[in-house]
């Protein structure tokens, strides 16, 4: 069962279980197509929350970067990354380095920062042999599908992200903050409502409390907006979690999430969140040359396990302060 929904000059195909798709006729000029259709494409994203553009025929990283810059108001430099990325050019990155056999479950990019990307841009240069789709899920729909009890608590308390930066796993603090200068890292943390504590081994532990539900800055719709499940220990592969706990201890995991008051989040809650996300996931296998735009506040995204080589470029754009969406949940004194 399918239908089509028009936006100015563009028609987006809607199929159950698949992201909204626009079939482009770029005739070898992806940048020209992007320039001509920018406003209509952005209008389609505003209507649908995400749009996969097929047929634009993106050919290399330089062309992708030019198209990204033409479509977005401004590309962002990533801060507080949880995993390393390759940088192709200013504001254009590889997908996060994450084991191919492990899924990256639904999340909103940088939802734990105070300045977040309003728009995510993805482009595929090389599609994997199998799997590897970037799934999407509508955040207001997910919020409506969640039981009232956990939502009420998360709305009241927010959620707490605890990170332990080291040089062995995940992003080091120098990679995450863009500097190895401790003073600069401390200044950033103070300016961004992040508690920090330097460890005897030279590592860094941080804690930041954020809102779990925010109002979309344009529509005002309430969105389930966080990385509670994605960065929680119970989303990790059980063998990986057991190994990390053995090596670093339960309090030393590279990242973990808690209720806003610091209470641990049970495995049952994390399973529930991931099940609701899965029930509302739309997915389409990548094809080389594809482009996808995602409203990062309205729409969560994921990355499915894959085999073979996969090269998907990413940009974060149209920065918005979380306070514009919903009051930031400040870190409480301890």
Largest sheet: 7 strands, mixed
Main sheet: which strands, in order across? 3-4-17-8-20-6-5
Distance between the termini: 54 Å
Instruction: Report the mean per-residue pLDDT as an integer.
Output: 92
Global Rg: 19 Å
Question: What order do the helices and strands come in, and which of them pair?
Answer:
Blueprint: E1 2-7, E2 10-15, E3 21-23, H1 30-48, E4 50-54, H2 61-71, E5 87-89, E6 92-94, E7 104-107, E8 115-126, E9 130-131, E10 136-138, H3 139-145, H4 148-157, E11 159-165, H5 173-177, H6 182-191, E12 195-198, E13 204-210, E14 213-215, E15 222-224, H7 238-248, E16 255-259, H8 267-279, E17 291-295, E18 299-303, E19 306-307, E20 311-321
Helix pairs in contact: 1-2
